[in-house]
Write a structure and sequence with these properties.
There is one protein chain. A hairpin with a 2-residue loop joins strand 1 and strand 2. The two termini are 22 Å apart. By secondary structure, the protein is of the alpha+beta class. Strands 1-2 form a two-stranded antiparallel ribbon. Strands 3-4 form a two-stranded parallel sheet.
């Protein structure tokens, strides 16, 4: 997850963006065909979302961007 305050979380645990690559890589190391679901608040700058997408790309894992449905 990414918050509008620029905070990053993995399974509700805070992770500094500079540590996301090794932490996520370690978390997913034993998984077959892992998929990351990224939750980002609507007000999060796209640059913060792209940082997570870049980490997923480097780890060669699928990333899905979760959004809230329109009402």
């Amino acid at each position: 997850a990414v918050t509008e305050k620029g905070e990053y979380f993995l399974n509700n645990q805070p992770v500094p963006i500079e540590n996301l690559l090794p932490v996520l890589g370690n978390f997913l190391k034993d998984k077959t065909n892992p998929v990351v679901i990224l939750h980002a608040q609507k007000s999060v700058p796209i640059e913060n979302v792209v940082k997570v997408m870049d980490v997923a790309n480097k780890l060669k894992i699928k990333l899905v961007l979760a959004t809230n449905p329109e009402r």
